[in-house]
Design brief:
The protein is mainly alpha-helical. It contains seven helices and two strands. A hairpin with a 2-residue loop joins strand 1 and strand 2. The longest helix has 21 residues. The protein is globular, with a radius of gyration of 14 Å.
Length: 140
Amino acid sequence: MSQQTAEETIQDLKDAFLFLEEWTDRYGYLIDLGKKLPEFPPELQVEENLMPGCQSQVWLVSYMEGDKLRFKAASDAMIVSGLIAMILKVYDNRTPEEVLATDPAFLDELGLKKHLSPSRSNGLHSLVQHVMAAAKRYSS
């Protein structure tokens, strides 16, 4: 089975959010996504992998695997873990060029900004900035 494109993944997320009309259900969906995040190795839970400016603890590492940019991330907060899982669904295991070509505007289209606390919204924005910065570092 071939991997979905970033756009197909974004469309799936939009469909899921549209299907769930209530924000309590959407939060539940985010929490479920977060529970499916791959295990984040304890040895990577170090200060240098902590994202600055996040109210909860968020660890993020990026590395190349062949021609694909890979991310590992985790948080100590359930909703934040779901937001991380959503970002990784879209951006993980793609070439740096694909990452840079995928506009994060879908996050606004999902209505997340107005339903997240300002600190979570800022953290989500910071996470996307880190992902894009990693893609720029690794792009040829």
